[in-house]
User: Fold this.
Amino acid sequence: MDKPDLAALESLRNLPRHARGQIKLGGLSISYNDPLALYNEYDNIFIKRIYEFKPLRQAPAILDVGACIGVSTMYFKTAFPLSTITAFEPDAAIGSIF
Assistant:
């Protein structure tokens, strides 16, 4: 995984709330519907690594329930490239960005 461009990440904090857009962070192209929400998700998941774990096998099966716009799914697939991921987002407005 590429190192995140922290300046690009910080730029999300200055955009208007609930504005749709797209940004490239850490080699990933991410679509969003709220730049501040993406900032917080990316910071927690990729920078602070709140979902980091050691899997019991090389190809874990991962359930991402409440996947939002898919940031956690991208993290899991980046961290565990052989994993099988089932992602679900019940909010159709948010899930459509996924």
